[in-house]
Write a structure and sequence with these properties.
The chain has helices at 3-23, 29-45, 51-64, 76-96. The chain is mostly helical. It has one domain (3-96).
């Protein structure tokens, strides 16, 4: 994992717990978001095999948070938490995407290097 991802995984859990504690009465879904993130973090710590589970979990959190959109009353911590989740979803999507197909390496054409009409 790169440094930004490691830092985000380490700080986002406590931040989501704080947001759920402060704003949970107004939005009970925040407790589910905080718990869901812990499952996502565990899946990402498992490495490549956990990417699918992490992607599905982040899609679910996106649905719970209306596309990671903070409500008007959201404080900076709340906005930061949703922004970090959205960033994480992008990182996981890029990591989980299949690599682009590559053309098989080809050598020079058999006629390359010969002048027109030259015999082998």
């Amino acid at each position: 994992m790169d440094e930004a991802l490691t830092t985000t995984l380490a700080t986002l859990g406590p931040l989501l717990a704080k947001v759920a504690e402060v704003h949970g009465r107004q939005d009970p879904r925040l407790a589910e978001v905080a718990a869901g993130f812990e499952a996502i973090r565990a899946a990402l710590e498992a490495g490549r095999p956990g990417l699918g589970a992490a992607a599905a979990g982040l899609d679910r959190l996106g649905a719970l948070t209306d596309g990671f959109s903070p409500p008007e009353h959201a404080c900076r911590s709340y906005r930061r938490a949703l922004s970090d989740l959205e960033w994480l979803r992008g990182q996981v999507a890029r990591a989980a995407a299949p690599p682009p197909p590559h053309a098989a390496p080809r050598g020079p054409h058999p006629a390359a290097g010969r002048r027109h009409g030259a015999k082998r």
